[in-house]
Structures are given as C-alpha cells and as structure tokens.
Amino acid sequence: MSLIRNCIIEKNNNKIPIWFMRQAGRYLPEFREIRKKNPNFIELCLNKNLVPEITLQPIKRFKLIDAAIIFSDILMIPHGLGQKVEFKKDFGPILNKVDINKISKISEKEFTKNLMPVYDSMKIISSNEIIKTKDKIGFVGAPWTLLVYMINQKSPKKKIAKEILDDNLLIKSLLNIIDRFTKLHIKNQIDNGATLIQIFDSWAGLLKKENEISELIYNPTLSLVNYVKSFNVPVICFPREIKNYKEFCEIIKPDVVNIDYNVNPKEIVKNIKIPVQGGLDPKILLTDKETLKKETIKYLEIFKDHPYIFNLGHGVLPETNPGMVEYLVQTVKEFK
Ligand code: CP3
What we know:
- The protein is α/β, with parallel strands linked by helices.
- Helix content is 48%, strand content 11%.
- It has 16 helices and nine strands.
- Helix 9 packs across helix 11 and helix 11 packs parallel to helix 12 (210-229).
C-alpha cells in the first residue's frame, strides 16, 4: 500500500508521506526548458508526450516524494466545454465571456473527446514503473472556484466582484453544468489510473455569508466528494482560506483536508478528526535552510500523533530554488 493510502485508510502516521501542490512547474529548470518551446499553455496541457514527462519530472528529481499530480489545470474544464481559455504571461488566465446556450449543448462525448489527451496522459503516467508504488493524483477545481473563473473571466481580486453573484439564474445553470462535467472529468481520470482525487477550491475564502457558503461551496462540493467516494478512491479537499475548516470537514467529510498557511495548525489538530495535509507557507522555501527546517519541524511536531500528509499551504512558488525543495523532502523523511 502506498504511504499516502496507509495514512488515509489505516490512519498510520509512522512514516509521513510528502508531495507538493504545483510540484511540476516553473521553479524547475527542466520544466522551463519545455515551456519555452511551448508558448500555448492549454496546448501544452493537451500534449500527451509532454504531460507525462512534465508530471514525472519532480518524481525523477526528488526520488522520495510519494505522489505524482498530473500536469494539467483546473481550467481545462471550461476549455473542454468550449469556453476559450488563454494564459497571459505575468497576468494569469483570461477567459472569453461564457455563452450558456453554447455550453449547454456540449455532449459528454464531445467533452471527453476535447480532453482525451489528458486522459491518455493519465494512462501513460500510471503505467510508468517509477510511479508504481506511489499515488497518481487526478484533480479538479471545486465548482465555486470554476464558477468564479467562468463568470469573472480572470482571477478575482481579494474582494469578490459583486457581478459574480449578481445573476442567480446564470449561477444555477452553470453550477448544474459544472457538476455534470466535473464528475465526468473525475471519472475519466479514475478510469485511466488516478488513485486519488484532489479538489482545489482556491477561492473558498472569498465567501463569508452562511447561506452563500452553503449554496456555493458546501452543497456542490459534497456532491463531488460523494461521487469520488463511490469509486472507492480517496478524496482530498483544499478549501483555501475557508472561514471554518471544522464545519467544512463535518459537513463534507472528505478523506483528507488540505489546510492553508493562514490557519493555526494547533487549532486544526485540536478540532479536526480526519487526516490533514499541508499548511507550510510556500514563502518559507524562499528563506534559508535553517528557517525551513525549523518551520517544517514545527508542523511535524504538531501533527506527530495525527494522520498527516506533508505538503504546503498553497502551490510551490515559481521563484523557489529546487535545492530547498530537496532539503524539505529530506527533513520530512528523516524526522523521528
Ligand atoms: O500541482 C501540479 O504540479 C499540477 C499542475 C497544476 C497547475 N495548475 C499547472 C499550472 C495544478 C494542480 C493547477 C491547479 C490550478 N490552476 C488552480 C488551483 C490551485 C491554486 O493554485 O490555487 C488554479 C486556481 C488554477 C488556475 C491557474 N492556472 C492560474 C490562476 C494560473 C496562472 C497563475 C499561476 O499560478 O501560475 C495558472 C497557470 C498554471 N497552471 C501554470 C502551471 C504550471 C503556470 C503556467 C506557466 O508556465 O505560465
């Protein structure tokens, strides 16, 4: 059994598993090399030769990490639905205005065909020898975060743009479509070898009102979590900066919750019963080895009697030195 499954299923925390959100990406020179020659990010995510190669880059470099996460993006769903998505350098994603009539007409067959290279890549990754005993992580964006991108057409500012919540009818129909096709995207990844699913709700922290959190985060996320569980595949939720992690866990009951770096890990360990993942501020990797070790041990000590998967409180930053990531892996693996 993989170390991560051992932690999730057996609640065993003798050996702490470790992987990183955004472990395949711009901080790796071997990724930047490929990226330079592939200016279109969506096309890169649909390249079934390069996606497996990029996905396995961090596994080859840091031999002891316990999972590969497929190199892809949460915005592949709007792309698969026919909403145009582009990535502008130093700006982020830009989406065309959503055409609800057009995307309502997309069939499941067409969607799967549009994203077939993602699923082919997952199959190639999962059959690679070097990942045999490790987990293969598939992922999706949570419905709320996808809704934010599909309506706002770019990353939102700290304060939520009022327009996102303005059009109730649009939200209702979009949530319906997102639920259907996110489930299909999950199924297609599992059918092709994903052994774990992570749900990224990067903008969960934007909502503060109880009724909005219920309608836009809890209900739609619960629908996906129960769907993943029906395959007997564990599901990790990352409701970044959500107001109340304890309430989230009690209502959603994911197999694992990933915490962000603004939440106090001591409160989490006291209040949350399920396995926990992550927490360390990715900015700590930009400091020095001594600070990194101290902060890493802090998390390891706090969670020493709790099932814990080491990860960060958000993705690895592009300016990170891979040597610091290596040192972090080593520190975690040598603990105890
Ligand atoms: O974790 C991994 O290594 C797998 C790959 C992965 C990417 N995006 C690749 C990527 C994952 C898991 C994601 C998830 C994702 N994408 C999220 C949720 C996690 C989070 O960071 O909050 C979100 C919100 C997106 C949408 C997105 N994609 C944004 C806002 C951006 C631009 C800003 C940024 O963070 O880079 C992207 C682009 C993106 N996705 C890149 C990568 C490697 C950078 C592309 C480049 O080379 O320019």
